Each structure stands twice: as C-alpha cells, then as structure tokens.
Description:
The protein is of the alpha+beta class. The protein is built from nine helices and six strands. It has helices at residues 2-12, 26-35, 45-55, 62-70, 74-87, 89-97, 145-149, 154-162, 177-183, and strands spanning 19-22, 40-43, 113-117, 122-127, 130-135, 140-141. It has a four-stranded antiparallel beta sheet with strand order 3-4-5-6. The chain has a two-stranded parallel ribbon with strand order 1-2. Strand 1, helix 2 (26-35) and strand 2 form a beta-alpha-beta unit. Helix 1 crosses helix 2 (26-35) and helix 5 (74-87) packs across helix 6 (89-97). The protein is extended.
Amino acid sequence: MVMVFRNLKAVFGEHNEMVIVSDAHKSIENGFNAVYGIAEHGLCAFHLLKNLKKNHKSLPMEDSFNKCVRAYTPLEFEYYMRQLEQLSPSMRHELEAVGRHRWARAFFRRKRYQIYPVDQHEFEVHHRKEQFFVNILNRTCSCRQWDLDLIPCSHACIALSTRNLNLHLYTDKFDYVSNLINMYKKGTRPIGSVNQIRNTHQGGNDGILPPQVKRPAGRPKKKRFASFLEKKAIVHCNRCGKKGHNCRSCKEPI
C-alpha cells in the first residue's frame, strides 16, 4: 500500500485540507501514515457499519449509527451514541478506538468549505474542486440554486454564517410557514356535485369529444404494449432443450 499512496501523492500532491477515505484495514492505515504527513485519513461509515454488524449480529443499530455519523454537534452525537451503548456496551469502545474524528461529522477536523471574502457582500466559496461566487446583497450564487429556488444554497449559508446573518431573512417569504398557514386560513369552499356545476360553455355542448384521428392502415393490434419493467420470455426448444429457438427451427442433430 505504500507504493499506491506514493503514486497517489505524486499525482494529487498533499495539502492541509486533503482527506482520503477508506475502510479500516490496517495495511491502508500503515501505508497512509508512511507517506502522508498533513493530510487526514477518514474511515468509510458504510464499511464501519458492516464491521459492527459482524460483531453485533441481529441488533437494530443502523438508524442510530447513521444519525451518529451525521450529527453536527457533540451533544447530538452523544445522544445517539448512548442509544448504541444501550444495545451493546462494547459498541462505544469499538467506535471510539478507531478515532471518532475519522468517521463522525461532529469531530471532523477539516473544513468542507473554504471561504474568501471579496468585500462586504461578495464571497468566493471553494467546495471540493469547484469555486462558487456568492453575492448576499443580490441573493445570488453561481451555482444558480439560490437564484432559482429562492432558498439559500449551501454556499450562501456558509457565506451568511461568516457575517452572523439570519438565514431565514434571506429566504423568500413564499416559503415561510406563516405564509403557508395564511393561504389556507380562510378555508376552501366546496364545489358540490358534478350536476350542480353551472355550465359556462358558450356553445351549449359541454360534452368532451375524442380527438379526430386518422385510422392507421392494417389490422388493429390486440396485443397490449409491454411495460419496460417486464422481461421478455426466453424461448426453449422442446427437442434439444437449448434456449433461443423452438423445435420447428431446431437444427441440432438428433
């Protein structure tokens, strides 16, 4: 694994915000520690959960573990960790032995976003290998999500948080819960049965007629169109037993 990481470092280099995620195999960890100095080695939560299931069979741990991984605060992390500890006391020791900063979001030591203020209202946000331009005064982002949905995107949220601004004030009022309540506060009037609805058709004929189509040539098809989920039946030969043809077209020797 040392040679693999050396080749990886030769291609991508190494920097302070670099993170390599893998499973918890010892050879990967030893190879990473031998090559990298400032990069971070994270553990894949999927493989970590598989190892837990192998050691603690038939325990309903998946939901609590995933919430533990995605928790943003140490307090939230501890809440779900106690649920795992109630299932099996040794589960906490196994998870913390590998280093919770390597798999839990609440203790992760690297930033997911790098932000560079341009002026009071404009920011350049780096996420992974992409760069986004955020303007909180015009409520725009180069990813176009804030422009179209009128809800701050993740790049806008990190820019607003650096200025300690309220995210809700930069969301369109149409998406407020209070606005949704006001829309249905007066209720909806009933329309009655179909025969009580007033006819507003000017021509006097309110019947819906079928579209005028030209009858195609040939015999009408009686067989229904098969769904794309339906698999075609495989033809078997009763004579030789092979697939792809029937006994009439069979050319196998008797």
